[in-house]
């Protein structure tokens, strides 16, 4: 049971770290108009 909780928590943290990195890179590309807004939202 403890292992399952640890795996779920680690997956949650890993997804948050990945999403944070992706949002930072898309934000820079979007604000500099390197990619269109429609492409950035997809």
From TrEMBL:
UniProt entry keywords in alphabetical sequence: Signal
Signal peptide: 1-22
Protein name: Phosphate transporter
Species assigned in the record: Geobacillus zalihae
């Amino acid at each position: 049971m403890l292992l399952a909780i640890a795996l779920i928590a680690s997956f949650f943290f890993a997804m948050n770290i990945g999403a944070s990195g992706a949002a930072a890179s898309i934000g820079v590309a979007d604000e500099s108009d390197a990619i269109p807004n429609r492409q950035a939202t997809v």
